[in-house]
Amino acid sequence: MSLKKSLLVLFAVFLLAGCEQQPALPEPPPIQTLYAGKPFTIGILPEQNVFEQRKRYHQLGEYLTQALRRPVKIKLLDSYSHVGIAKELEEDIIDAAFFGSYIYALTYQQGLIEPIARPVDTEYGAEYRGVIFTRPETGVTSDVTTWVGKRIALVHHANTAGYLFPRWYLHQSYSGDYHAYFERILFLGSHDATVLAVHSKHADIGAAKESIVNRMMQQNADIAASLTIIASGEISVPTNTLAVRNDLDTALKQQIETALLDMHLSDAGQQALKALGAERFIRTEDHEYDALRYIMREMELFNEPLTRIDSIAKP
Question: Is the pTM of this model over 0.85?
Answer without folding.
Answer: no
